[in-house]
Amino acid sequence: MKSAVLIIDVQCKFFDEEPRPYEADKVIQRINNITDRARGSQIPVIFIQAEQAGFLEHGSDSWKLQSDLIVHATDLIVQKNTPSCFLKTNLIETLASMGANNLIICGYASEFCIDSTARAATQLGYHVQLVADAHTTHEKQHLSAKNIREHHNVTLSMAPTITAVRASDITFYKKKQQVHTDQCIAE
Length: 187
Prior knowledge:
six-stranded parallel sheet
């Protein structure tokens, strides 16, 4: 299976304004660790950026990716304006061009964009590894952010093609490259 990492909506609006999401700094640290290991194994890294007129204006400071995220020039960025990263975006075509059929999903908000994207991915035939401790949300009146994350880890992984996996348990394998050597044979 060919993998790609999707980092959803880790933007200044959600991560820098008070109150911040549950384990905001730890989630960003785990995402940076995953993306670093992915790049080292030549796994594509795709940042998803939400935008919405009057709330999350394209190009505004709040729209930008959170400054502690490590983003490389080789990473891809996909813009979206719905909870699902697949609806009205070029993500399906982008993943198809890479041959990716396994998605490693992390980011913001567990009960909204993470949930919508994971469900859509499985409906589209992708396998999903939901990074159980690298997605987050804000506290809600009816449920804590920690419980929302735990709830989505359990309920989403009930689907046969979605597995909740801790960030430290995500394994990347480096592609084997053929090494060519010139041999000189003394006669």
